[in-house]
Specification:
Elements: E1 2-8, E2 10-11, E3 23-24, H1 27-44, E4 52-59, H2 67-80, E5 83-92, H3 99-108, E6 112-118, H4 122-127, H5 134-147, E7 152-158, H6 165-178, E8 182-187, H7 195-199, H8 208-224, E9 228-231, E10 234-236, H9 243-249, E11 254-257, E12 262-265, E13 268-272, H10 276-281, E14 285-290, H11 294-301, E15 308-309, H12 310-317, H13 323-334, E16 338-340, E17 344-347, H14 349-353, H15 355-364
Length: 365
């Protein structure tokens, strides 16, 4: 079944590390955008026969779009597509939520929240441009649960300014207290066009070895708390993996709506330009390339702890992996970077840290 991604490119302010397409919000522009989204969703459905089982509102900051507008987008999706036991996720900033907002989302059918925490240490959050403090994050989680939304994910960042193993433990303790269902933990990457990039050497960051130590420490601690480290940057309680994002890693198909949103449908990848006015007036897609080839499938599968399952690969592509491939795997296995048995091959947490290099080597084989 298909997933649907809705890009909400509005924020109250731009975080210094963020290079996603976004802009300041105002009601007039958001209403125009809502109308364009609804039209796009309805028009695109004309050629779609598959059912939909995940919907994901990303951003930007979807919570500034408001519960009523999100509900209207979901109404358009229900009118245009067949929804089957859907996981419906909305990314939220704890500084832009309250109980009424979550209650509105719940009544609209939202059953999962991805909350932008980044750190439970207030000094670190302030350095990241986050307005809410730790208490507001806890309050937002409690209000979501009170409203009936009981599948909650927290975003964490590793390698951020002034972070240490000790301060990371403060965030881990907070996660333990809140007992949320899912954690996404991303290592900070400095991108061109961000304020962090412009700061250059003035930005005080942990060094590469310290960040690697943080990553492995975080993985160990999350696993000790009962979370499965199921993807390079993601941890879940049993049966609580992010179903929508797992579609990406399993090379399954999805439709994206909104400026800068990408789609993969009928074997073709395409996107909308990161241009709000063009989306409001034209909504023309740009074809990128065909998708789903063996190299892409292998690259994405190895992001998951399930790894590359041989039976699934052979069923999809009609042949087995080569002897040279397995010879390379055994070398990585001896280094503690991979696991291999008769059914699958996968990266270890240590291997995840070197995933780009390892995957490039395996693709060459």
């Amino acid at each position: 079944m298909l997933g649907i991604y809705i890009h909400i490119p509005f924020c109250k302010s731009k975080c210094p590390y963020c290079d996603f397409y976004s802009m300041r919000c105002n009601d007039e522009l958001m209403d125009r955008y809502l109308s364009a989204l609804v039209d796009d969703i309805r028009e695109t459905s004309a050629g779609v026969t598959e059912a939909v089982d995940t919907v994901y509102f990303g951003g930007g900051t979807p919570s500034v779009f408001g519960g009523d507008r999100i509900g209207k987008v979901l109404d358009a999706i229900r009118e245009s597509y067949k929804l089957v036991s859907p996981e419906i996720t909305v990314e939220c900033n704890p500084s832009t939520t309250n109980y009424v907002f979550y209650e509105t989302l719940f009544k609209a059918g939202v059953n999962r929240i991805s909350l932008g925490m980044q750190s439970a240490v207030d000094k670190e959050r302030k350095n990241l441009g986050r307005a809410a403090d730790k208490n507001q994050v806890a309050k937002s989680i409690a209000e979501a649960r009170q409203a009936g939304i009981n599948n909650i994910s927290l975003d964490m960042m590793l390698g951020i300014p002034y972070q240490t193993i000790e301060s990371l433990d403060e965030s881990i303790d907070f996660i333990k207290e809140q007992n949320v269902e899912h954690i996404s933990a991303y290592m900070l990457k400095i991108e061109k066009g961000t304020r962090f990039y412009d700061m250059g050497d003035k930005l005080v960051l942990p060094d590469e070895n310290e960040v690697c130590d943080m990553y492995l420490h975080f993985s160990r601690q999350m696993r000790s708390l009962g979370y499965e480290h199921y993807e390079i940057s993601n941890f879940a309680k049993p049966s609580q993996r992010a179903r929508h994002n797992t579609k990406y890693w399993r090379d399954e198909e999805y439709l994206g709506f909104g400026p800068s949103a990408y789609s993969f449908y009928k074997g073709v990848r395409y996107h909308y330009d990161a241009d709000m006015e063009k989306y409001l007036t034209e909504r023309k897609t740009v074809i990128d390339e065909t998708g789903g080839d063996r190299e892409e499938y292998l690259m994405l599968a190895l992001r998951l702890s399930d790894g590359l399952v041989f039976e699934q690969y052979e069923k999809r592509y009609g042949h087995s992996l080569t002897a040279d491939f397995f010879n390379k795997v055994r070398l990585f296995e001896k280094q503690g970077l991979m696991l291999c048995d008769e059914k699958h091959v996968a990266l270890t947490p240590e291997g995840f840290l070197l995933s780009n290099t390892i995957i490039a080597e395996l693709i060459n084989e």
